[in-house]
C-alpha cells in the first residue's frame, strides 16, 4: 500500500452521493506500485470511471462537478463544464467526458467518465467501435503500438463543439489490415489497476474487450497473440512480472476462443493512419465585416522587398500607425485581385473560422491591412530539418485544418443541396479561371520554351519533349502535350461550375497558413481565391505543394540524395528515379485524402449529393497544373527539373500516385 493513497476510497465517496461506479487507475500507479513509497511521488494520475445508468452518468457530470473536485482533491480544475458545454453528451454526439485538473499534491489528475451500458455495447460488438470523448484538451497526433509490437502514428480528425470544446475520437480497437491496436480508454482499461470494482464491472469489461481482440486477431492470423501487452503504449515501462501476469490472465480466460470468419490478410505495416471522430457537428460562422477606416492614421509603410517561394503576388510589408502600432498590409496588383480578396474573405467567413479580419481597406490603392500576427508561415518551418517535435507540432495543426475543411465542405455542399444557398447566386471564386487560364495562356511557353537538355548525345528542346510519350519507372504515361490537353478539358470552368461545389479557401497550402508555434494558434491568409468552387481544385494545391515539398522546393532545401536517370528512346522519354515521400509528406497526403476528400465523398454520397464520378481525373489534372505551372521548373538543376516533371506526370494518374506514396 502506498502511503497517502486515497484512490481506494473513491468508490465509497461516489457511492455516498448515490452513484454506483467502478474505477480503474492507469499509468505508473498500475504497474510500478513497488517503486513508490508515498502517493505524492506519482507525477500523473489517469483514471477511468464507469457509471451505472445513463441518467446517473449525465446527472454526475452536470450537477456534481464540485463534488468531483472534492473527491479527487482537485484544487485547480481545468474547466467546469456549463450546461451548454455538455450539450453534445445529452444530444448523443459524445459518449464520454474527460475531466481533469491539478490536485492538492500538485499532480495532474485526469478522469474519463463513461456510462456502463454504452461501454458494454461497444466492447461486445464484433467490429471496432468508437468512443467520442468530450474534452477541453484537444490532442490529435498519437504514437501507438500494434499487437505485434510495431510502432505507428495515428492522426485523429476531432470535432470542435459550438462552445469551443473538443470531441476526441477514441476507437476501442484499431484494425490495420490484420494488425490491431488499442484506443486510449481501451488501453487504460486493459493495462490499469481496478481500485474499486465491487460488482466486477471492470472485470467484465476487460473480458469483453480481450474477447473482442482475441476474436479479431485469431480470425486474421489463426492463433492467439504471443504477448498481449505489445499493443499497449507504455509496454516498455512494464515490469516483467506485470507482463507475465497479464498474459496469463488473458490466455487462461480466452485461450480457446473461436476466430471470426474473416479471411486472413497479409499485415500492411504502414506508418500512419487517420481516424475521424463522428458524427460531424455542423457549425456555421457569423460572416465577418470589413472595416474601411482605422482610428489611427498610417504614418509609414515599410515594404518587405525580400522574396521567397512562399511570397504572395502582391506588395506587402509593415504599416506603422500614428500610435506606434504595427499592422500588416498588402497592395494587390490590380482592382480585380483586390475585389477577389474582399469577396473571397466575406464568402469564406460564413464557413471558416481562423480568418484574419481586415481592419482597413483603401480601394484607391488596392490596399488591405490586417492586425499583426506574431508568427510565421508554416511552410517555412520545413526548410529546416524535420525533428520529432516539429513533426508532432506540424501534424497537430494539420489535423485541425482537416477538420476545418471537412466541416466547411460538408456544410456548404449541404446548403446548396437544400437550397439554403442558391447555386445561381453563389460567389464563385476565381480558382476555376486561374487553373484554366494557366493552361490556356502563355505561362507554359514563358516557363519552358528555352529549356533544352542533352542525353545519349541527343539535344532535346522543350517543344520536342512536349510530344514524347513518358515512361516512368516502367509505367507509360501520356505526353506533356496530351496531359495538358486533357487538363484543359477536365478543368473547363463552365464544366466544373455544373459539378459538385463547396466553399473553400482556394489556396490553403502551408505557404498561406500562419502559426505561432502553438498547434491551436493558426490563421488562414490570402483569400483572393476563396469562395465556391470544386473541392478537388480547392485541395489540389495544398496536396501538391505540401506533399511534394522536398522536390518542389529543392532549390531552397539542403542537398538531398536522389537518384534519377533520364534517356531518350525514339519518341519516348524514359525516367528511372527513387523519389519517395518522406514521413511528413506521407502523413500530410493521408490526412488531406483520408481526413477530408474521401470522408467528404462518403458523407455527401450518403445524403444523395453527387460527388462527381470523374473526380480522380479532375484532381489529377489539377495536380498537373499545380506542379507544372506554379513554379518554373526549368530554373532548377537538371535533377530537380526531371524529378519534378516525373512527379507531375505521375500525379495525373492520381489513384496510382496516391497508393504508391502512402
TrEMBL record:
Domain of life the protein comes from = Bacteria
The name on file for this protein is: Uncharacterized protein
Q: Could you tell me which species this protein originates from?
A: Candidatus Collierbacteria bacterium GW2011_GWC2_45_15
